Amino acid sequence: MCGITGWIDWEQDLSQQQPVLEQMACTLKERGPDREGYWLSPCAALAHRRLIVIDPVGGKQPMLFTQGEQTYVLTYNGELYNFRELREELRARDHVFRTHSDTEVLLHAYVEWGEECVNHFNGIFAFAIWDEARQRLFIARDHLGVKPLFYAQVGSAIVFGSEIKALLAHPLVEPVLDNEGMKAIFVSLFLSGGGIFRDIHELRPAHCATFTRERTHIRPYWQLVSRPHTDDLETTAEYIRSLLKDTVKRQLIADVPVVTLLSGGLDSSGVTSLAAREFQSEHKVLDTYAINYANSEEHFEGNAIRPSIDRPYVEQVARYLPTNHHDVVVSTEELLENLLVPMRAHDRPKMGQIETSLYLLFKVIKQNATVALSGESADEVFGGYPWFHQEHVLNTPTFPWIAARMNPRGDNQFMNMGTPFLSPALAQELHPREHMQRLYQEALVEVPRLEGESPRDARIREIFYLNMTRFLLLLLDRKDRMSMATGLEVRVPFCDHRLVQYVWNIPWEMKTVDNIEKGILRRAFSGLLPEEVRMRRKSAYPTSFDPAYTQAVRCWTLEILNNANAPVNSFVNVEFIRQLAEHPDEEMRGENAYFLFDYLIQTNAWLQEYHVVTP
After folding, report:
1. Active-site residue among 2, 43, 117, 495?
2. Which residue among 108, 347, 493, 532 is least enclosed by CB atoms within 10 Å?
3. Strands, DSSP E only, in 81-156?
4. Using CA atoms, how far apart are residues 242 and 499, in angstroms rounded to an integer?
5. Does the pLDDT of residue 590 top 80, yes or no?
């Protein structure tokens, strides 16, 4: 994994602009700590920060390919898991390779197939290719959006990068927060996407864009297709197993140490089991890592979201396979000291403790490895969340993760800020409820329908689409930023687009076979895990239950609210939030409390550190 950035301008000479390019690339040094590279011409300036994973010598970037009078320049973040097959196919078409890297394969694929090259890729990627002869920039992002990519069009210039901070390092791009940006920060914060600041855009997953002097063309290159599922139960489970086995094997390819994340849940345990068997075939032992919290288990109280603690199940899997397991214990002090890390990694306030703990976990893993496999996205693809199984959610016309947490008044105070957390004036200006409803309706229009489907099945298909195209992006974004902030690459086998397309059409009754969430995935993992783990009910990502954490962020929040110069106070209902902090009711205890206070603390720091301007 790496960081990419660049600047295109057809009306000024960029060949002497390396100082600006270096400034942009420097913001991405955590993503690519191993090497930097630059390429400049009169109209294009491309930069790359490299995290070495494959072919340390041959994978240098930006990478050039020259053919006659044609010159192509690539800066690329990601991995192509099918690069070996593609290399052989391209060799059969007379392409000659000088390295063993997937970077060179991607570049040659563009030379051979042009913009249609993306249809040949299996992997996670965000890349930019400058065609010097045609004076054309082509950018693309992977199918599910594992790797981020932002761009800004300002006058005659195109500026792009892996993270917003790279764009803000350019003198033409300013951190201006208009109404749409304020809605993203204060209303729809559980919907990822967008560049937050004016003129900055995020390229959507499975999309590519072409920029020339005359025009900009953005299009999807892949989308889910709805069709009847014709395989029987046994065939379906076996095919899922074979796809995952192939995917994990591909994603273990690296010239650096590879480990897996292990929570003791079905998804990470299944991935770990497949990876451990690949390691065993090479007479190696897989290293696994899990997060835990100091002073937390003694305060644990099971609920519908987290019915059980992870540790006993983690230990079962580690013994059963076996693996060389590492428990990473995070203290409350560490969580508080690093609370602002997510904000700085995302260039916007984010989810607080959950992200901070991931960062601390990845920081430890990075001491021994450069690549980790994760079970992310299985819940979105197979229907593992509680809201897939709740009738009131199916009948509520909004995003399911919001409907699932609504209180009897029909409000959801914790999945979006909105009213009553906003100042009355800002709430009147942003219209939170109307904004969320508009985003919801825009998403529903995209759903690929299946003719003849029953109303209930059609609604479940909608719930899946909302999860895979909206909620999943939050989690992938979280994994990418927290891992890359430590120089660690995290791969996500359940995001293989072949698997996603196949599972998309499996009927709900088959997905929930054996009357349990993700029943078909449990069937696919039969014989690979201890039965108690294979049949363990869904338990969300763990958080600290230490009351000292909630008390600390509550006090921090009150300090901000009592500071007349704190910038966040201009946006929020200070008295309402102060009342919650001083006299928390039942709804504002535990996770609900720390999420709100974490977010407010990060937002205040973000407004200060990024010198955010409101028009």
Report:
1. 2
2. 532
3. 123-131, 136-141, 150-154
4. 10
5. no
